[in-house]
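Most newcomers find our protein records easier to grasp once they have seen one. Sequence and backbone structure share a record, each on its own labelled line. Nothing more is needed to start thinking about how sequence determines fold. As an example, a complete record with its sequence and its structure tokens follows.
=====
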Amino acid sequence: MATVMVVDDVAANRDIVRMLLGYRGHEVIEAHDGADALRLAHVHHPDVVVSDVLMPGIDGLELVHRLRTDPDRQAAQAPVIFYTANYLEPETRPIAEACGVSQVVLRSQDPHTLLDAVDTALANGPVTVEVPAADEAFAQAHLHAVNAKLIEKVRALHDTERRFEAMAIASPVGIGIIDRHGNADYINPRLAEIMQVSLDSFLGQGWLACLDTDAQDAALSLLHGAGNTAELKFDHRITWSDGTTRRLRLHLRQIHDDDDGQLAGGVLMVDDVTDLVSAEDRLREETLRRQEEARHRDAERLDSLRRMAGGTAHDFNNILGAILGYATLAIETISDAQTDGTIPAETAESLLGDLGQVVKGGERAKTLTQQLLAFGRREVTQPTALNMNKLLRDAHGALRSAAGPGTELVLDLAPDLPDVQADPAQITQAVQNLVRNSVEAMPAGGTVTITTAVEDEHVVLRIRDTGTGMPQHVLDRACEPFFSTKPTVGTAGLGLSTAQGIVSQAGGQLKLLSREGQGTTATFALPAVMTTPAAPPPVDEHQGCPGGETLLLVDDEVALLQVTARILDGAGYHVLTASDGTEALQVLEQHPGHVSALVTDVVMPGMNGRQLAQIATSRQPNLTIVFVSGFAEALFDEQGNNLEPGSTILAKPYNRETLVSTVRSALNAAQHS
């Protein structure tokens, strides 16, 4: 291990050399200039001196000459290595040869070159070169080397200044050079052009006119070195003398001295971004317009899909009603034949089993049509004032079953919850669909939390799960009908779309919030009913028995008309039939006896059921009306309000028990009114 003295006026350069030599195990002494190096050489007698050449005061050339003429012979004989970025070896050769400089190493060379030079100098030992104190040759060589380097530096500086000025003049950005006191000593023409002022008026502290008051204080603090940031960015708006408003973006950055790293001031860059901001605003407006158009197209497409789904479900309900009706009649006929022995018991059981499968399939199809109608907001509803907390508590068992064994179901219900106006069965179905959807997103189990709250005169229900969440492209399509991310499960993809249709028909809107890995929250809000109407007295569905009343049955679907007539006839009623409104009025007018009730389909070509009922009741005011429909558009508005208040509505498809009990209840209610 040797003692090496490093001489350099730049601290960063000394640090680099100290680290390099430290790897070899050398002890390093640092000197910040030539005078300091002479003093330390007397104290420590270094084995090697590594010195810069170009330094203020005593430079490297003068330092090596003074060392060689120093009375302290141990200091005078120390090997010297020039480590420089400014002098090349040929430029220092005269002095190097005269004063015994071991080697000239450039900073641009591989760091190992310096380490090798130190090892060589140590191996060669002390330098024994006698240099006369008044050596004219040294003085001439020193002067020549320094003058040549100064001329080179002056030329390089002049070239740099010309390049900077050319760039600054041609720059599309305004540039200002600011000292650490906040005074501008250079302003390029572009900055004066942007600000519409003269160059002279922007020198000194005139440049601060680019900033508002708060920004001026921040800028001066930055130039004074306050705070932890080295740059600031501002947006500013100015108005030219002609009234034109311009948008500016300013960037102020600190400048530090290369030698000592001290704060030397800052550079200000000002860009007129008026055109850019205007283009960004136009792009933003265009993007918003296109997004709105896309939303409008999606809404139109979804509305068309809803109408198609509702209409298809309505037509299918008529077919399905006939199938289920005839299957019911066939079951009754076979059961009667089995009882009286007309058909062998084994044959009857086989036929009843087959027909049971038909009914089972029909019930499954009925569920699907109900989902389509709910999605299309066309399902026949029976809105009533209901309390969401009570509905959830009553449905807790069904929701628990929907959640399954691996899921924890939590109810967090707000107290004193006001009522809402909605169909309880439909809201229950919507909540069950949402719970099932949450469970499917938690294959490993988790928690589904249902909360209620009152917000802005609305009752809000949230269903939150701890599942896998949905990526944005899935979330965007989650409520589309028949869209499913589980194609192998055999799902129809109607769970969320059905829930959305139910909530929408009840006057709310279903919203989904989801992130991958963070679960999903489904939220909907329904208008609160602040005053609860008095509940009507309950009607005993079994009160009274068929007494041979005459019913006028109207439906444009012939098969459904016939099977419904047979069911009502079998229940003890005298049934008149008509396939449209015109025919029904003729039958009503020509029938000699009393017609107790009009049981009519609502959606029919020509005269619809509502129109028929209005004309019929005008002719027979005591006529009981029972509307039959699987399509709510003709009976309910978009808010779910019944357009025929007080009427009896029977939803398609229906079974025998529902049909008979509904007609009986309507007749009984009319008798007691």
Notes: The longest helix spans residues 274-340. The two ends are 118 Å apart (CA to CA). The chain has 21 helices and 22 strands.
